[in-house]
Design a protein that fits this description.
It contains 14 helices and 8 strands. It is of the alpha/beta class and 295 residues long.
Amino acid sequence: MSFSIRVPSLITPVHYITQTEEPFMKTSLMLFLFTTDPDFAATAEMSGVDSIIIDWENHNKKSRQLDYSTEINFDTPEDVARIASQVQISVTVRINSLGLHTKFEIEEAIKNGAKIIMLPMASDAREVQEFIDLVDGRAKTIIQIETQRLVEDCDKLKFLPWDYAYIGLNDLMVSRRDNYIWNALLDGTVSHIYQTLANKDVGFGGVTVVTGGYPIPFIELLAEMSRLGCKLSFLRRSFKKDIQGRDMVAEIQAIRYAWQAACLRSESAILRDQNKLTETLLKHRVVDSKDIKMA
């Protein structure tokens, strides 16, 4: 028997889970932290974070994300080497989008100790394959799904030998000329990506302390991440702000416990939590995307 909730008509369709949908496979959640601070990275490693991200992506990012609440970094190869010498966990380097510079950036990242290379803003499966060929098995790969064209190319993407994918909701919003970062979650786009890339390691959203998250409570987002079968996520601005004055070991452990609890929910609890998140997202939906802050 199928059960769904009816809501008033919206500009963007809203996807509600029904009891006839197949449950997604659950797993542990890999945590990637953005930082160039060696001490912070060492503490993160001790706390159970899985990888440190050094961020080189800045080409055209300012103009692309003009008037949006985003973060632009200008990390260096020296940052990669310094962090790689400080921690045992994998260092991830996010390079710039595919171009004539890509081969050089990959070589520099690997030479300085990167074990994972992340490609942002891929426009289609062909670009992803070119990136994978350039890495040539020397590091693991993360593909950021953050253009509408790549979303539409997921049927081809699923056959390529990448290691991880991450759905970048902010750039996807920009690509779709949308005005709300969470519309891709509300209209079923994120769910569609997970279904198309079933049994692949795909992540989305952001992670912060379990009592954090504004305007969307993190614990509500975490429940949806579990429902969809999220395999990885990022710790960035909100986490760095919320962790101030707190014990990182305890906070990461609390996130792990909350994740385990989310993965053990009953079907009725999953349905209730998904619909609660939908109501929260609709409540905070605004016309001006400049008011939106990522979790």
